[in-house]
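FIELD: query
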Amino acid sequence: MGWGFIMLGLIVFLLFLSSPIIGIVSLVLFIIILITYGMATDKKRMEKMKEEQRIQEEKKEKEEQRLKVLMEKYEVPEETKSIKYKHGHPLIDKKNFHLKTWVTEDNLCLFDKTEGGVGKIVIPLDDIEYFNMRGEVYRENKISGGGVSGGGTSVGGAVAGGLIAGGVGAVVGSRKSVKGDPIKSETITHDNREVLLRINLDSKKYDIIFNNNAYQSLKELIPDKDYESIKNDYLIDQVNKKENDAIDKIKRLSLLRDEGILTEEEFRFKKKELLDKIN
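FIELD: result
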């Protein structure tokens, strides 16, 4: 169509050279044709955009309807948490997608809303051993530039890396002839943390891996399964057990003292010895 307008414009130009009046009339007609064509093109473009928008809205409506039916089927509550599943569950073939999750009185529920997905997975709370965060966050300091024109020492692409917890990196310089560039330092943060949820299924242990953002969600849903909480409770139980054992032994020693089997000095010595063990 572009070549057609070029040819038409050329004809108008030739007519204008042969007769200005005819040329002016032809020019007006040419402008009218351009405007009409532009309006028709805009109309087609708008119609195409409306059709594409209509198709997108239909797809969205169908997806919402499909999801609504699916959520009613699996009794998914309105309030859920979204966590990114990575891998590990024997019933889920896909990797790296989001699941809706919530907890009932006895179960942790996972819901796969994708078309052709597994639907709802129920994990009894009694089958969950624990969840915890593993991996680390570390920073990498990338240094570049610093060259001296005509020769000198430059730091080109050296890297200083280390754990946030206190690792020490190294900067390596090299001597080369380069133009003078300013030294640039860029800090890059690497986060390879992930959340592990250990479960028992059919007498086997499975480690289900989620994105690190799942930690806070699981901590809110099943706080008593947090590994740190379990570890702290165990340590407290051990301390309480030691204290109770020590108290029982002191009571028995007191009876031996009252019966004259132990002297007061021996009783105090043994009592102090037991108390020192639990402090």
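FIELD: remark
Residues 230-278 form one domain.
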